[in-house]
Specification:
The protein has about 475 residues and is an alpha+beta fold. The protein has 2 domains: about 35 residues; about 325 residues, 2-Layer Sandwich (Alpha-D-Glucose-1,6-Bisphosphate, Chain A, domain 4). About 40% of the residues lie in helices and about 20% in strands. Helix 1 packs antiparallel against helix 2 and helix 9 packs across helix 11.
Length: about 475
């Protein structure tokens, strides 16, 4: 019996693999008791090894057979995901390309890392150019009203009352040329009703305190907040910065839009240089970085006005805006006031351009008044404007832009006016003047080369604006 068992184990070991033979030499298979009391192996080691090897070969064969099907399913799944993502991306691209220009969208994608690193601050600062434009809350006088006021002014002039030098000082001022003769009086009334304390007569605080301003301390020894107390309290005090105070009025139909009133004063800027900077289209392209294109479409020297095309650079994510507007201006030497009125106009020779949004709801009124003479430092100005850029901006961005962009823009205007005045005083004028006459240079050759003032005015068509030296007819503030 023992010999039979030994012979069977040797045969199994010889027929099995080397691994099986080694396992057989080390470990005896389990035994079971038969009915006759004899023991026999429960599972043959050779059979187990053969089953493992067979299972391994079947798995490899199945993988080889099914690999193409698995690869095909994987490719189909990947194609489905890629197609879905691509279609979604194209839908988003088509959606946003309607709002923003394709060039701006590409630039936004390239600059997203920089914008995220700066936490969006650069984008908000660039958006400050959105309100670097001029407009007003109520439309300028209609053509009929303008013609009526001009007719009255002509009648006054014929009778010696409009611009006559022999007019009696006790007579009332002439009718307004553009209907804005009382703008400074309206600003003074608004200041009294909103930012002047009725108790102590000192200034009240808007959003912050400015140096060299005496503020009210009636509220328990502290400054009081500015609130419009007038019968028409729609103009609410908004911000105050150096030299300027700003009010705003919510638009009647669009709650996210505001009209703005700005009152400012400068002691080192002349009225004539400020007026020149506002109207000089060629010079503005040098000092205003937001200007993409600015040109005179239709000069109207006889009507004291022109038609302007103006394209404004907007922030990276937005399309540029352009304006086509009629601009009229007038210098009233008797009332000592300069007036600039602008309003949108429809022109066939200025069609809309692809990729640029045309602004059709914009107009502005600016009045300028010198402290003493037009060519002497010291002037006040008032600006009332409304501008609908044609897109919705969240209130937080609108407030930030208005509180930073508008004062910065006005300070650039004042700096450009200071440059003009310095060059006029020194006689070394490099600024391309359009409304002011260059002062005569020293030397006979220079005086001979310069045309007479009458020819200069005739060449530019700006007869309403006075020469640089003829200021004898201007009177100081408070005089008759």
């Amino acid at each position: 019996m023992l010999a039979l068992l030994k012979g069977g184990r040797a045969a199994a070991t010889a027929s099995a693999s080397p691994v099986a033979r080694a396992a057989a030499g080390r470990l005896q298979p389990p035994l079971s008791q038969t009915a006759a009391g004899r023991s026999q192996p429960l599972v043959s080691s050779a059979a187990a090894a053969q089953q493992v090897l067979s299972l391994h070969r079947r798995l490899l064969a199945m993988l080889r057979q099914q690999s193409r099907a698995l690869l095909r399913l994987s490719v189909i799944q990947c194609e489905f995901v890629i197609i879905y993502r691509t279609r979604r991306t194209m839908q988003l691209f088509e959606l946003y390309s309607g709002l923003y220009s394709r060039e701006a969208l590409r630039e936004m994608l390239r600059a997203v890392r920089r914008l995220l690193a700066a936490q969006g601050r650069r984008l908000l600062l660039s958006a400050a150019l959105v309100v670097g434009t001029e407009a007003t809350p109520s439309p300028p006088p209609a053509d009929g009203q303008k013609a009526e006021t001009e007719k009255e002014a002509e009648q006054e002039q014929e009778t010696g009352g409009a611009d006559g030098d022999t007019e009696d000082a006790d007579q009332p001022p002439p009718p307004a040329r553009h209907g804005y003769e009382g703008e400074f009086e309206r600003f003074a009334k608004l200041c009294k009703e909103s930012i002047i304390c009725p108790e102590c007569g000192k200034r009240q605080v808007l959003d912050r305190q400015v140096e060299k301003i005496a503020y009210c301390a009636c509220a328990n020894g502290g400054p009081t907040a500015a609130v419009n107390r007038g019968p028409d309290a729609t103009w609410e005090p908004f911000i105050e910065r150096n030299h300027v105070v700003v009010w705003r009025q919510r638009h009647g139909q669009q709650d996210h839009l505001y009209s703005y009133k700005v009152y400012g004063t400068y002691d080192d800027v002349t009225a004539e240089s400020f007026f020149e900077v506002q109207l000089n289209t060629e010079y503005r392209t040098q000092w205003d970085p937001s200007v993409m294109e600015l040109r005179v479409v239709d000069p109207k020297p006889g009507d004291d006005g022109d038609v302007i095309y103006w394209q404004v650079k907007f922030p990276t994510m937005f399309q540029n805006r352009d304006y086509v507007f009629d601009r009229s201006y007038h210098v009233d030497r008797r009332a000592r006031q300069m007036t600039i009125v602008s309003r949108c106009a429809a022109r066939d020779d200025c069609p809309e351009r692809p990729g640029v949004v045309r602004v059709n709801n914009y107009w502005s009124v600016m009045v300028i008044r010198p402290h003493t003479n037009f060519d002497q430092p010291g002037m006040d100005f008032g600006l009332t404007y409304f501008d609908d850029p044609g897109t919705y901006l969240p209130p937080v961005i609108t407030n930030y832009v208005a509180a930073t962009g508008l004062p910065n823009f006005l300070e650039r205007v004042a700096d450009a006016a200071r440059t003009v005045h310095r060059q006029m005083v020194s006689g070394q004028v490099t600024v391309p003047l359009q409304f002011l006459e260059r002062p005569p240079s020293e030397g006979p050759a220079a005086s001979a080369a310069a045309p007479p003032p009458q020819q200069q005015r005739a060449a530019t068509g700006r007869a309403e604006f006075t020469s640089y030296s003829a200021r004898a007819d201007f009177v100081p503030v408070g005089a008759a």
